[in-house]
Inverse folding.
């Protein structure tokens, strides 16, 4: 049934493309898969994501950036999407922003990066590192939600406004919501700034530091 479902989706895309439409013209809800229909195994899910061609981002990618880290992590970080370095390596947060994120994890939370799980809203690099379109993000979101379900973290840190928006359906500015824990059912969400923003605005690092102290307190409370 799963293969048939995917085949029908691809057939729909090819027919619309032949009619002169772009993938990004399709209503997001027409392409979204229910996370419940996706496999309950990260490696099986990875294979599906690596073969995904449901939006325009798949056309120019070099590698799918699925996610990495402890598959049973209590703490998960969610960013926006891959950059150039991530697109070439297939790993999330390995460029300058990734170096900063690693320092934040290891110097503030005092745990190795390998103990957390890291993923993005979209798994393919948007051209020029632009913000993903709603269609791109909503098409890819079921994969992220399934990752969260499988890893089952106690705490999820959303990095930047895009990750926050597509995890909560809330368009509030990140500066207003950052650092405030939000109950999301099975996990607690803590929004903070994206490391790329911190590289451009070093003065905001102090606020991000306090956000991570909140994360640290939540982790200690769960022990």
């Amino acid at each position: 049934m799963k293969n048939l479902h995917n085949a029908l989706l691809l057939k729909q895309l090819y027919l619309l493309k032949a009619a002169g439409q772009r993938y990004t013209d399709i209503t997001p809800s027409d392409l979204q898969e229910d996370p419940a229909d996706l496999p309950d195994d990260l490696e099986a899910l990875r294979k599906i994501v690596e073969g995904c061609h449901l939006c325009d981002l798949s056309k120019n990618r070099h590698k799918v950036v699925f996610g990495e880290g402890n598959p049973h992590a209590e703490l998960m970080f969610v960013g926006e999407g891959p950059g150039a370095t991530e697109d070439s390596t297939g790993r999330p947060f390995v460029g300058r922003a990734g170096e900063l994120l690693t320092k934040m994890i290891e110097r503030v939370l005092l745990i190795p990066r390998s103990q957390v799980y890291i993923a993005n809203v979209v798994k393919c690099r948007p051209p020029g590192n632009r913000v993903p379109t709603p269609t791109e993000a909503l098409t890819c979101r079921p994969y992220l939600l399934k990752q969260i379900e499988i890893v089952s973290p106690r705490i999820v840190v959303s990095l930047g406004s895009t990750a926050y928006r597509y995890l909560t359906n809330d368009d509030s500015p990140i500066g207003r919501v950052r650092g405030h824990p939000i109950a999301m059912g099975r996990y607690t969400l803590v929004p903070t700034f994206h490391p790329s923003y911190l590289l451009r605005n070093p003065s905001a690092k102090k606020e991000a530091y306090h956000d991570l102290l909140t994360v640290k307190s939540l982790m200690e409370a769960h022990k």
User: Anything to note?
Assistant: The CA atoms of residues 38 and 45 lie 7 Å apart. The domain at 33-221 is CATH 3.40.470.10 (Uracil-DNA Glycosylase, subunit E). The chain has one domain: 33-221. The two ends are 42 Å apart (CA to CA).
